[in-house]
Write a structure and sequence with these properties.
With 124 residues, the chain is α+β, with helices and mostly antiparallel strands. The chain contains three helices and seven strands, in the order E-H-H-E-E-E-E-H-E-E. Strands 2-3-4-5-1-6-7 form a seven-stranded antiparallel sheet, sandwiched between helices. A hairpin with a 2-residue loop joins strand 4 and strand 5.
């Protein structure tokens, strides 16, 4: 079972579904802030301290891949200059929340494409 979460920051009122679709097609979106992708990657790694880091942007890659200690659950994070897309596989609801909280700490609200909802005000 997998879940995808997308995070971006904007001060404008944009249609979240349109933003998501453009980001998934690799198109730039006017009105989105440029992100500190190194901070986003580090936040994910710190949120899962016991997980194995298989790939890192910091090592010259294009994504971050983490695996749980039992190798069952995983995180695959991809980046664009204005977004972070996190695909989670075989994770619990509590682990999903760790991902969301790590990004919220960087003021990156969640867009959940499974339910087509953007959560602009998530408590940290």
């Amino acid at each position: 079972m997998s879940q995808q979460f997308v995070f971006w920051r904007t001060s404008e009122l944009l249609d979240a579904r349109v933003v998501y679709e453009a980001l998934m097609e690799g198109k730039p979106v006017a009105g989105l802030d440029l992100l500190d992708l190194d901070a986003a990657e580090q936040a994910l790694i710190v949120a899962f301290p016991d997980w194995t880091v298989e790939a890192r942007r910091a090592d010259g890659g294009e994504q971050t891949m983490l695996f749980s200690p039992d190798q069952r659950a995983s995180i695959d994070a991809g980046y664009s200059p204005e977004s972070v897309t996190v695909s989670c596989s075989w994770m619990s609801g509590e682990q999903y929340n760790l991902v969301i909280q790590a990004m919220a700490a960087l003021h990156l609200p969640l867009y959940d494409p499974q339910i087509d909802e953007r959560f602009d005000s998530v408590p940290i």
